[in-house]
Amino acid sequence: MATHDIFMPALSSTMTEGKIVEWLKQPGDKVGRGESVLVVESDKADMDVESFQDGYLAAVLMPAGSTAPVGETIGLIVETEAEIADAQAKATSAAPAASAPAPTPAPAAVQAPAPTPAPTQAPAAPAPVAASAAPVANGRVVASPRAKKLASQMGVDLSTVRGSGPHGRIQAEDVEQAGGQPISVPRVAEGTAAAVAASAAPSAAAPSAPAGNSFGRPGDTVAFNTLQGAVNRNMEASLAVPCFRVGYTITTDKLDAFSKLVKPKGVTMTALLAKAVAVTLARHPQVNAATTAAGMTYPAEVNVAIAVAMEDGGLITPVLRNADRTDLYEMSRQWKDLVKRSRSKQLQPEEYSTGTFTLSNLGMFGVDRFDAILPPGTGAILAVAASRPTVVAGKDGSIAVKRQMQVNLTADHRVIYGADGAAFLKDLAELIEHRPESLAL
Questions:
Q1: Less CB within 10 Å around the terminal CB: N or C of the chain?
Q2: H-type helices in 29-171, by residue range?
């Protein structure tokens, strides 16, 4: 009998374990080579796991909701339908006591947190939705776990929802739109989207926590989700890095004026800041470097990662690749796409794990100044605060009101020294204060 194991894959270089979100195939189903068998939640994304051979799914060793370390066997595939029964018997007899929850009733025990919102389903009056065909696989509607949970809470029939995800998969925002709710977006380094979502939240979700949100109510204890757990591990790893911090005050009058000119063309302040940082990094490769076991590594690309706080908890850093060489308008389009796909956890690992420098902008919240924690594997991160009108004294003794923002660089002192950080910030300030229009050239 030829039995092939389905292993928990390593979907990113930092992934140590994964959570099984959903089995797209059930025991007995025929599986084709390259066909998606299940969905796994890695540290920062939901990704399909494909079969490497043709055959039949014989056994599911880890039900949906289970977490397994990378490399662990989570299912079995056999070559012929006649081998299914033998494989299932072998899997049952070989299963350790800890895996006893694998039979059919187990998912209820493994997914104990999931039924929590159930009481809110009682008054589930179907909301009006647009009639359209939903993607179906093996008789089941294909939707993300968060979309299913949200649909259950809102009383939306998933079979009537059109999906906007990969291969037509229904995402949470599709359910929100079908149910007439404002579409939630991650809080990013922009001033508008998050403000709209925040203002709509009290009326739309006042009775209970927002759907899909991992934050608890007063008195609750909420387990870390997979994304938050990954952030925790990264932050603990950062404690071993000897960091220093250096700040700089930058006048933004010209940048603000230029931003108004290019905003109608789809260019956001985030794109402008990322472009300015990238261009400056190209002239200061030491600040783009990182420490490795072999020494100091100087990346061939300038990839700017930008911190995005997700609505269901945790943090992700979509990456603008080759930001120093990418056209400003093209980069703005890329950023818009990255934010959209980060919302539905559809970023590929290389789209959030290849940053060589990180940008964190809390200016949208009116923060005067803050220090950022250095992400592992990079040499520096820049914290950008709000731009505010400030009374400034000129060199000739004159007094004027100018808009200024505080930026603080956190750097790994093993590869970047104080003089390196100071020179980088000085050149960044000179670019923003005197030549912001050059960012569009």
A1: C
A2: 84-94, 106-110, 145-154
Q: Which two tokens stand for residue 235?
A: 């932050």
Question: For strand 304-306 and strand 357-361, is the pairing parallel, antiparallel, or unpaired?
Answer: parallel
Residue 409, strand partner residues: 246, 382
The sign of the CA dihedral 102, 104, 106, 112 is positive
pLDDT at 323 over 80: yes
The model carries a pTM of: 0.62
Nearest to 223 by CA among 349, 89, 87, 314: 314
Pair of tokens at residue 108: 């209820």
CA angle 234, 236, 238 (to 5 degrees): 70
Give the DSSP letter of residue 384: E
Measured in degrees and rounded to the nearest 5, phi and psi for residue 144 equal: -70, 155
What are the pLDDT digits (tens) for 185-212?
A: 444 444 333 333 333 334 343 344 443 4
CA–CA separation, 265 and 335 (whole Å): 14
Pick the closest to residue 165 from 341, 24, 388 (CA basis).
341
CA distance 330 to 20: 36
Where is pLDDT greater, at 392 or 165? 392
Q: Walk me through the domains of the chain, giving residue ranges and CATH numbers.
A: 3-110 (2.40.50.100), 119-204 (4.10.320.10), 227-440 (3.30.559.10)
Residue 413 among the catalytic residues: yes
DSSP 397: S
H and E: helices and strands count for the chain: 10, 20
- Map residue 75 onto helix, strand or coil: strand
The helix or strand, by DSSP H or E, that contains position 55, with its residue range, turns out to be strand 55-60
- 371 contact partners, CB below 8 Å, separation of at least 6: 245, 383, 408, 410
Q: Which of 4, 167, 284, 413 is catalytic?
A: 413
Count of other CB atoms within 10 angstroms of residue 213: 16
